[in-house]
Amino acid sequence: MLVIGIAGGTGSGKTTVVNKMLNELPNKEVGIISQDSYYKATDNLSYEERTKINFDHPNSIDFELLVEHLKKLKSGEAIDQPVYSFVTHNRTKDTHRTHPTKVFIVEGILIFNNPELRDLCDIKIFVHADADERLIRRLKRDIQERGRDMNEVLNRYQDTLKPMHNQFIEPTKNFADIIIPNDRYNTVAVDIVRTVINDKLN
Ligand SMILES: Nc1ncnc2c1ncn2[C@@H]1O[C@H](COP(=O)(O)OP(=O)(O)O)[C@@H](O)[C@H]1O
Ligand SMILES: Nc1ccn([C@@H]2O[C@H](COP(=O)(O)O)[C@@H](O)[C@H]2O)c(=O)n1
């Protein structure tokens, strides 16, 4: 199994890039795991307490489970991926049965921050967009799709997101084999990675 890791700050366009790559590929042969699905379960906390979690710190992610799942997929076993809700800030009761495929994409802001997970990635890609561009995209997306308002997004950005990005995410760019500039849509880079995936599939 070829594992492709795709990291980058929030709003850099990781999900968009992955979807564009998957567009022209046989969907039964390429699997995807999002780090967002592996935020730690916090059933013991109230909603109010959950809103105060620092979701941009590595400690908020259940890397142990993510690594275990990826290893299982690599050894040919199916897994049950958690399903996360950005509205309740918690895992839902659902899981998503995921089967091993020839190629697996793992995407998330902090995936290169975890040495074990990093080592499981055969190709490491970092999607870059400037901070102001990412904030604008994040603001629009979180209001439209994640049930947030402007104050929530901006306060989170100033209090935790920006310092965590600088401390834990931006430095992991150094681990990348490929950096995709994504201030504008980058079809050339996406096509190149798709070619690599196609080679593996054929
Ligand atoms: N190159 C781009 N130009 C303009 N908007 C983009 C670009 N890439 C992504 N977006 C938009 O920015 C928002 C965040 O992108 P997304 O792929 O969800 O980022 P990430 O997964 O890195 O947080 C989405 O609304 C998406 O449509
Ligand atoms: N309940 C949550 C959990 C996470 N976030 C934010 O999501 C960002 C990571 O996801 P991307 O798709 O943008 O890569 C991260 O920056 C967290 O702040 C959240 O807002 N609420």
From TrEMBL:
Gene Ontology molecular function: any one: uridine kinase activity
| Residues covered by the Phosphoribulokinase/uridine kinase domain | 3-188
Keyword terms of this UniProt record: ATP-binding, Cytoplasm, Kinase, Nucleotide-binding, Transferase
Q: Which reaction does it catalyse?
A: cytidine + ATP = CMP + ADP + H(+); uridine + ATP = UMP + ADP + H(+)
In the Enzyme Commission scheme, what number(s) does this protein have? 2.7.1.48
Q: Which Pfam families match?
A: PRK
Read off the PANTHER family from this record: URIDINE KINASE (PTHR10285)
In Swiss-Prot or TrEMBL terms, this protein is called Uridine kinase
Q: Give the originating organism.
A: Urechidicola vernalis
